[in-house]
Batch of 4 targets.
Target 1
Amino acid sequence: MKYVYYTEEQKQRANSVDLLDFLQKQGERFTRAGREWRWERHDSVTVRGNRWFRHSRKEGGYAIDFVQEFFDLNFPEAVEMLLGGENGVEWNQAEKSAPQPKKDFCLPEANFDMRRVFAYLIKQRFLDRDVLSYFAREKLIYEDKENHNAVFVGLDENGTARHAHKRGTYMKGKPYKGNVEGSNPKYSFHYIGKGNTLFVFEAPIDMLSFITLYPKNWMDHSYVTLDGVSGHAMICQLEQNPHLDKIILCLDHDEAGIEASGRLRDILSEKEYQQHSVRQSKYKDWNEDLKAIHGIQPLPAKEHPKLVLLPKICAKLPYLCEAFPANMDVSDAMSKHFNLLEPILTPGGAVEKYTEEMKGYLDFIAAGALLSRKELSRQMEQPVTVAQLIQDLQEKYRPHDDRGGYRGRVDDFKRDFMGMKRQSGAVGICTAKDYEQLCSLYFKLALGCVKFHIFLQLEEPVLLPAQQQITELTIKI
């Protein structure tokens, strides 16, 4: 039986990744803190080289466990992400051989024809014959001699093969897929046209399915596959082809694809690409759309559960804002609810019994923060409505940024609330910059409360006893 494993050399390379550089490529921001860098999204976390430390919990480690902790990935997924999408290596368990040293990249030997690959890609995947023939003539798709896999070749700027992705053609069981050892993830399977648009996909068959579905003038456009969700291949093609300034992300219509699209858009914005958007397939991916046209039952799309829940939570906020009496001190009311919530949040608190109450308190504090933000904007002569603030909150919510466990969220919530209290209670003359900072803190607190509510809602089976009766919460003002 064949497995895929990561060699010790790959693990060492992953663990030695410079975290500042890695996270900045994900669009994260940092501020200097002595010899270290403080992560703006989790300001109790600092990084230096390949090491990190969370001061609020007195814990830390190296790059792999950092990605596992903050990106909620298992060990192989963390290694793959740190290596920029580099896959593991095949290991035949029956041979019980030790891992072999890393080999230089070499394309698998080609078969004398492509009958099996063409039969698989046309009859099973419904790809257009003419499109396949073009890539075959360019020697970018061929059939390997040993296992009759479909091989998708990626060339560098000099036309030299630097990457190869293999896809099994047998339909029994889960088909094999993986990269040839030594592949450079920057140079995955792609096509560059003369137009200014770059379409981005997770895998070669996704890309070819899209071209089959939308063949009109396809050769004028450009296409690149990521072999996963890392952005290295996309950025490489953009840097090498400056005429590409419009990017359309066409990743899978599922939770992972939606998160990756958000993360990649942040990276594009950071690199000052102004024209980028997301285009989703109707079903799970573009090949499933193609299957549906040919009468095959497709795998359904899966919406991101956090994005499904977000508008439902936000829909409550206008009513809570209206519930505040006109003569009420909003800050005092928020503090009161924070004091009610804090004992439940602390380790050893009765979290299991009061999850519904926690959600209610969080919603109330979020509404208070929005009202405070609205009033401060009025004083700054930049009026804004609650409805506009809630819309802005939903637009700025990013599921790929909303990660972490219960304790980390408690730390973030307390930090955001106390930071807001310190800034709002500061004495002396406030400058325009002070007001802008306080506006940001109010908005950050509201967004943090919504994130915490989403976490509690989705993790409720873990936090609540199975038979607990949920009662209607009465807000105490």
Target 2
Amino acid sequence: MNLFTPELLDSFDSSIVPQSEADTLPPVIYTSEEFLEFERRAIFDHEWVCVGLASRVPDPGDWFTVDVNGERLIITRDKEGVVRALSSVCQHRAQAICEGSGSSTTFKCPYHHWIYGLDGRLLGAPAMEKTENFDKKDWGLPNIQVEVWQGFVFVNFDADAEPLAPTLERYNPYLEHYDLTNCRCTDTVVLEDMPWNWKIMFENFNDGYHATKLHEYIQDFCPSELSTFPVPWDDDSNVIFREAGYLHIDAGFNATHKALYPVFPDLTEEERWRSTFALIPPSLCLGTAPDQAFYFIVRPKTASTIDVEIGTLLHPDTFEHPMFEQLLETAIAGIQVFVDQDQDVTKKVQVGLNSRFAPRGRYSWQEESHVQFNRWLVKRYRERWPRD
């Protein structure tokens, strides 16, 4: 049975009309392995995918590896200080050159000791002098497009892809006073095999509707009805975000309802009365609060499982606070309550979407971000829909 029918493509139309009229997306696109494989080719092979923080490679020679859409990449900083993304596949016999992280002046394949520079050039290939028509300059590691935005590293397998940064301009004013590039990150956490589709993760992260329903009492300081959705939003934008207003200044997502860490010193009073929640699909969820920024890097594994890397960004001076460890422990305990509740419902949504009774539901005005996300998705589905 062919999943990619004109009827399924046409069915997306009702999900991209104005919010007051829109339906949720068809359940099958959250549950089908065949549809995820289509998304890998239509979206993850052509869009800018976040792979981590540039601060993980602070100095020339630093590197780490990451799996992106089935490819193992090396993220490194070359001798000129430029962040690069290289294929980790040796161009001799396809051995994976390295894994994990480290710092080195070159990369040496352990199999036959081909040596590559930090820019991917092949520098040495033992015993190849008798091989006809072999020139080292033709056998470097493939370079993948890289862009660093607000301290995050993005890669794109599409060599013709347009730059990312201009498509994120709408969100930049909300981040200016955080100076994310110079923030420090607490220890990241990677949650593996979380049992829900990658799009469910994005929808939950930016869902103002559930804020004081699922998170009743613990998030009463940031009620659903104070969600606002900056306009205009158009189909050329690669960021979807909302403002989440507070009932008091300097609120925090913990048992005290107040910011635990020192507030970022350059924030305006207006900025201290809100959080922001942003989607930069298909991989990064980014949020702000008065004392921190937080991010989720989402990596789909199957139609119903993802890995998620979670990190918190703080002003550098915060790490010098005399009670930093205690503040960190309290903050982690506070956010874990939200995480547990979100994980419970997203898991159950994935189960429900497999039901024959799964609906094409309707949206509240507090879910405007979902319709914008639908528009982002459907534009790309249409562009690369399989044709007979």
Target 3
Amino acid sequence: MQPRDDRFQDDRPQDDRPQGYGTGSAPERDRVRDPVNAADAIAEGVRGMAPAGIPHRLCVVAVELLPVTGASVSLRGNGMPVRMSASDDAAARVAEIQATLGDGPSLHAAETGAPVLASDLTTGRDARRWPVFAQQAAESGVQAVYSLPLGSGAVCVGTFDLYGDIPHELTEPELHTARLVAGVMTLALMSLSHEEGEEGEEGEGGVGEESWLSGLATAQDETYQAIGMIMAQLGIGAEEALARLRASAFAQGRTALDVAHEVITYRKRFDRD
């Protein structure tokens, strides 16, 4: 899922990419897609990992098990989702595009608490439903998005999002596997929230749970702080300030988080029209 232009790009190093769907022999692919074997593969994929490393690892495992080229997980924020992990940089950028636009399958899944399976963003109902996001996704090499809410009952804490580079309607076994991964992801998030106040152990890559969660909080705090500063600069409400932030980011081909950081560091100011 390689970006096809320079919009929404950054210079962060790209993660090692897993072998996607379509590699290896057909019997091997059929084996891992079987729900029973998929459950074993998920368990094996996260065995022995510290909680902080599990969200990223589950994104990678999902790409290995399903006909998708990327995956990401985001926490539901007040007005804007906060991306916490992704299988690779390309998937991360598509997640950021949705957050910046304030529109797309992920946000709809978070609002409704129900899966949103946009199997074809190139034409038809899905493309008409989110026209701007569909165009940006296509430019980033994504033609299908499957968003699964994370949480329990009526409480949605975030979404698990899968990205495909071709239109494809998930089969029942594939959707079952996606739900399995989402279920384990929810458990991992619950574990992280319980350990938030504790001193994190060093996980994969040398990053502890506490510092990892602090990084997420910092991203969300910067957005809220920027919204407050825009409200003061323009004398407007929070919703309009968030809309102005998103519009500025979209016009520049950047993410809302990037623009928020410029606002709070006084490198960008919003002036009255």
Target 4
Amino acid sequence: MGIINENFMLKNKTAKQLYYDYAENLPIIDYHCHLVPEMIANDHKFKDTYELFLGGDHYKWRQMRSNGIPEELITGNGDEFEKWTCFARTMPLLIGNPLYHWTALELKRYFDIDEPLTEKSAKTIWDKCNELLKRDDFSGKSLISKSNVEIICTTDDPADSLEHHIRLKNDGFSTKVLPTFRPDKAVEINKPTFMPYIEQIGVKTYAEFIKWLSEKIAFFHANGCRLSDHALEYVPFAAGDASAVFEKKINGGELTGEEINVFKTAVLKHCATEYTRLGWTMQLHIGALRNNNTNMFNKLGPDTGFDSINDLCIAEKLAEFMNYLELDDVLPKTILYTLNPKDNYVLGTMLGNFQKAPTAGKIQFGSGWWFNDNRDGMVAQMTALANLGILGRFVGMLTDSRSFVSYPRHEYFRRILCNLLGEWVEAGEYPDDRESLKKIVEGICYNNAKEYFNF
């Protein structure tokens, strides 16, 4: 018998009542994910269980490597059932790892499978899932609809045509699929990708570059975009002549660290000014140390499971950057995420420096992200926010996932949230006031995001 029962993660009476009365059936707003818009628009049919559960999922690949599985049977050309079996062999060892819970939830919610995934059960589960995947109601759109997803925000480069978002809107798909503006390639002037990107978009001067960004932001806005996202090792801050830095770069010059930060600061400020004008939310994902294994990066590329947590000091420059925007009244609604839990209290206190009416919770502390996307990480993030700010204004969970069956992560989060609130109520730290608790639970799980993002 599996572990996914009605009381999963709900360890007290109040938690169960809060979850089943207020959280369980709310729609999902997945305001940050990495689903491929083309796959949604094409109503993708999955070839087999490997593609659905393991295709593109570097969380799972990482643990398979840790279990000594050869790359040929993870991302290579090995037989896909063998790959699935290798994952199944890894699963029983993942006690305490959220992958164990996520996989159990995915099997239960989509395939009604209670049996734990092991090497012994791998074939039975493989066969059952494969048989169901042949059905029309297990296509990409169907899996999204089954998950009660109201809104999906994908992650999209400014140069994207958004053709698949436009198709989805015209097709009348019941779930809104909206783009998110992710201009990392345009910001990271120090990366090898910058010059090929500039050549691709065809700009010759800094003024043309800035004009291009503004036009792309307007184009995204016209197609439903209401969020941007920036992946930053650290938040830069330096004043200076960004045009001169751009010119030096395109003429083959070697940039100093200060010049790099001058350019990044100027581009981010320009974007933030546009976001503020349009009422967008800016997301800053801070603190990933990416592509650490050069051999594997050269073989597989980015986002394949070779990233980790950075340990830079982020507070001072983050404060300077946010203040720089606020001085000109161009600080947009902003969500701050940290990959390093040491910075939970840094971000939890940074929020209060820049809150501003009329938007309640204008500056948000983002949910436990990536390596913090687990019970301990979620509890730590919410506890820090509760200690330092207003948990009741939190915009809640997102999947940050490439998987069409990742939506039970919202259930996972909601159960953990209700359990945490239940603990506080039953410890006598908050009254058993169902009207107030209902507002908090429904707010964090759905209503706050709906209002905050102006969807």
